[in-house]
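Morning, I've got a small favour to ask if you have a moment. I owe you a coffee for this, so here goes:
>
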Amino acid sequence: MQEIFNLLFHPLPNGIMTILMGFSLFYWIFQLLLGDGVDFDTDADIHLGDVPDADASSDIDADKDFDTDIHHEPSFFSKCLEFINVGKVPLMVLVTVFKFISWVITIITTTIFGLATLGNWSVLILIPIFLIVFILMHWISKPLVKMFIQLGYKGEEKIDFLGRVGTMKSTIENDKIGSAEFIIGEDIYTLNIISDDGSKVSFGETVVITDCIDTKYFYKVKKQITLYNF
């Protein structure tokens, strides 16, 4: 028993991955015991909505007029999610599989190469392991995609953001791109936004979505009129 414990928690990379796997194990146990079975539709509390680039900086300036004919490339983060089939397979399933494979490879690698002698520096082995496993997930997730299609999984329901009220996370004016945060139910959505009429909307102000641009890659917003800012 002591040997198994040492293997799971020594050296440091093994301990980190064992703890991460423990979190996933507790998550699924709580889903089974405290929830109504395993609910694949509640993967996470923070979503990017259906916007490919949800992390637009307040310093990005748009020198072009935004019309519906402009094509905006999805962000690198969105492409990474698409690469491992997020949306076709529930996020928490993919996260659990990713951690399990990384955990197994970490234990095998640290044992074969005797990385315990490196002390805390051995944790660096997790970088190439995570990278390799991420690439492998593209093919590992394909059978899961087929399985969830047969189970009738259709991904998260699309959200209609028009008319939603949120809080500015940057300052926008004219054609400047910014971001705003919208809370829908228990979920948080961060969307790319521009000013509806070009007027200045400052950080922290409350806005309402009036329109979407280019297949919902960007949203137009205007300042919400209240008794406090009328």
Remarks:
- The helical segments are 2-9, 12-33, 76-83, 91-112, 126-150.
- Confidence is low (pLDDT under 50) at residues 41-72.
- The first strand starts at residue 46 and ends at 47.
- The chain is about 35% helix and 15% strand.
